Amino acid sequence: MNTKIIGTGYDLPAFAADNNYLATLVDTSDEWIVERTGIRTRHLAKEETTTSMAVNASRQALERAGMQAEDVELLIVATISGDTETPSTACRVQAEIGANRAVAFDINAACSGFLYGMHVAEAFIRSGIYRNALVIGAETLSKLIDWTDRSTCVLFGDGAGAAVLAATEETGIISQSIGSNGEKWEVLECQGRPNGNPLCEKGQELKYMTMNGQEVFKFAVKTVPLCVEDAVEKAGIGLDEVKYFLLHQANKRIIQSVAKRLGQPEEKFPMNLDQCGNTSAASLPILLAQMDEQGLLQKGDRLVLSGFGAGLTWGACLLEWQK
Ligand code: COA
């Protein structure tokens, strides 16, 4: 049994913070941010939460799929910024949308989270255990960021995207290539809550996200082309037969470098990072849902989705659009 995407949705916070707004917070400029990253604005949550955005994105995806929430069998949220340590964001979303028959859990694979979610969902659907899945990427990264650190705070944004996956006799997901390298965990990390148990030092500081930007950059431009090529080779097709390469929206220069290494024209690499920044696990499903909304995807189009992020983690998924 194959797996196809039958509905997409997304949600972004109302407030869009442009680069000039950030220049009022840290020593930076619109020129520097645009030149080094391609980002112009990002949406930041005020009233919105990871759960509320995931719920809105899910409702839209289910509506576009023509599916009722109570028919969802598997509900996965990829996030590193849930509203509660426990329960999972997936359980909160399940309750809000009324997906009361679903098995619900979260996945933590940072910016590769949505691809990891698709990987897991596809395996369950292919094995016949579930007939469908709602896979969501949702993040409020703005709460993990040190807003005095100009090397990270200019990069990230908040938002959520969702996709409904269903079993099909047609072609859908064709091949995947996915990996992790825990040895490099310190390159991009955010410590959890400090331990306040009676044995531990009192009043330990809450830590924010830290990143070695150049290491992440090198990792991305090396690993993404390899996993994209691997997924395409596994399918026995050529890169030229792929219509769009949807890459994790972290940095325009990373995307341009990957396009060059793959020998593919930049027009095949859609971007929304100028408007959304890096929304981690939400980045790929937001981009996919926006393209779907704009009517850019036709039945039979071959798409590659590829992401990379903390862990380190990475992945690529080749699929044929069947909506
Ligand atoms: N505004 C102005 N100057 C800044 C700045 C900012 N927001 N952030 C850093 N700088 C400064 C640095 O302090 C440094 O100054 P110095 O030379 O006086 O020390 C200078 O700019 C160059 O810093 P550097 O880190 O070498 O810049 P860079 O060209 O590597 O760009 C990143 C920095 C973060 C944009 C780039 O490394 C990157 O995009 N890495 C990948 C990050 C990523 O995608 N992470 C998420 C993965 S999921």
Describe this structure as you would to a colleague.
With 323 residues, the chain is an alpha/beta fold. It folds into two domains: 2-171, Thiolase/Chalcone synthase (Peroxisomal Thiolase, Chain A, domain 1, 3-Layer(aba) Sandwich), CATH 3.40.47.10; 174-320, Peroxisomal Thiolase, Chain A, domain 1 (3-Layer(aba) Sandwich). 32% of the residues lie in helices and 25% in strands. It has helices at 19-22, 30-37, 50-65, 89-97, 113-127, 150-153, 213-234, 252-262, 273-276, 283-293; strands at 2-11, 15-18, 41-44, 74-78, 103-107, 132-140, 158-168, 173-180, 188-189, 210-211, 244-247, 302-309, 313-320. The strands form four sheets. A five-stranded mixed sheet has the order 1-7-6-4-5, with helices on both faces. Strand 12 (302-309) and strand 13 (313-320) form a beta hairpin. The radius of gyration is 19 Å and the shape is globular. The two termini are 17 Å apart. The mean pLDDT is 97. The chain binds coenzyme A (COA). Coenzyme A binds at residues 28, 32-33, 36-37, 111, 150-151, 154-155, 211, 213-214, 216-217, 250-251, 278, 309.
Radius of gyration: 19 Å
SSE class:
alpha/beta
Total of helices? 10
Task: Determine the CATH superfamily of the largest domain.
Answer: Thiolase/Chalcone synthase
Described by strand count, sense and barrel closure, the largest sheet is: 5 strands, mixed
Termini separation (Å)?
Answer: 17 Å
The percentage of residues in β strands lies in 15-25%
Number of strands: 13
